[in-house]
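Standup, Tuesday
Yesterday: got the pipeline producing structure tokens again.
Today: sanity-check two examples.
Blockers: none.

Example 1:
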Amino acid sequence: MVAHGAGHLFDVAQGSRAALVHGEPRIRQAQRARAANDEGLLELGLQSCDAPAAGAMKVTQPLDKLGQNMKWIPGSPPALVWFIGVSEVLGAIGLVAPVALGILPVLTPVAAVCLVVVMVLAAGTHIRLGEYPVVGVNILLGAMAAFVAWGRF
């Protein structure tokens, strides 16, 4: 015998709560909560589109052109600029692709941690060069990546 009470279904014969809460199985509620979390993290990853855009610029544009807007580039080896660009692009892909495709989702927090490291190093470079307004962007992107890593580990 099943009785309704306070929005829950109870198995009166056994005195225990059935697997329904507010008319929906608990497992389905947990799945919906996880999907909402995944969507939120995916949105967060998509919001940080600055990393792939900046990374792609560092990989595809000549150093002379990049050096006009970025003070740190003229004094840096070309291989370092290219490595930073590739790291930013791969980090941004690593934030989104594993969750979106459902393949090796453990790579998402790993990519997020790597992006945090890149942003900390970038902030240090900008502070050293006196580019204080840019440090805020590094802190914001690093905090977003840290949030993804924290939510995924």
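Example 2:
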Amino acid sequence: MGFTTARKGELALTGGAVGSLADQIATLLTGLRRAGAAPGDLALLRVFYRHDAPGAADLKAALAAALPAETRTALSLVPVVQAGTGDGLLSIEAAAIVTRHGPPRQVAGPVEGPFVAGVRQGRFVFLGAVAGMAADGIVAESTSVMRQLGATL
């Protein structure tokens, strides 16, 4: 599977799976550039990874190291039960808001390297989340998402 990139108005989307995490981040950023987006326009990064691969904290640290310093994006890590690449990564999706004349971007904290709880710009709102595999985690996850939404709006 390769990467696909599309742009409609201010919204640029890209996603797919190729090689290692570093390969996927590089391909993702290239796709966004082709759509007219800069790394600083990245609003949401959604990563699907094998549930039995290295933990979410390790994946988050590797993503932070691979992203450009000016990136401030919401991050969603989604564990799935499926075979992936050798490092446990299945695929990455990204959304970027490309506007030079619209309202300023607002981010909701806390800021952890390139990651924020939420991004709001104009009519777009993106929230990050780390989905868990535990059956009882849905209440805690839902509560966290609602807090993030409140902080972002």
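Quick observation on example 2: The CA atoms of residues 3 and 87 lie 18 Å apart. The first strand starts at residue 3 and ends at 8.
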